[in-house]
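Quick one: co-fold with protoporphyrin IX containing FE.
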Amino acid sequence: MNSRPAASDCYSGPAIALHWLIAVLIIGGFYLGWIMTDIPGFTPTKLRYFSWHKWIGLTVFALAVLRVLWRATHRAPTLDSATPLWQKAAAHAVHGVLYLLILAIPFSCYFYSSAAGIQVVYLGIVPLPTFIGLGRSRPRCARYTSR
Ligand code: HEM
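Sure, here it is.
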């Protein structure tokens, strides 16, 4: 039995708003991630960009969770009945992969950041847990450990 409301012809306002908000944040966060790593040294600007990048990524994650919850409780608009079956299957598969990526990328980046031993303080206000300890910066082979 499916308790979700019947599908309509188009997405609702909240679904469209979430879609575009997530899209804009991913593009902005990606751009920031790209340019921040090219800034030489440890300048205040670089550190600020790193923080903004992390906050944007975490906001994407939170909004993506909301989006998945919305999708689990609402039906997506039905595709045109003339759409070939393989195209319907391809559309579902691509949507599934996109959901997976918008959750997995910020999630894995968060762990990557934790492994660098840097705690994320969301919006400079909320300290977040690190989950994993500091990663090793050097290989453990005898050549290095004996020094
Ligand atoms: C939608 C989410 C995200 C996207 C699309 C994204 C994308 C990127 C990109 C394109 C770079 C530049 C990589 C390079 O040029 O080497 C980057 C770097 C980085 N990101 Fe993200 N990111 C996301 C979320 C996050 C989150 C949530 C965190 C941590 C809380 C994070 C932490 C980092 C760090 C620390 C770097 C620098 C890596 C380095 O020093 O080489 N990112 N990210």
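If it helps, The pocket of protoporphyrin IX containing FE is lined by residues 26, 29-30, 33-34, 37, 53-54, 57-58, 60, 105-106, 109-110, 113, 120 (CB under 6 Å).
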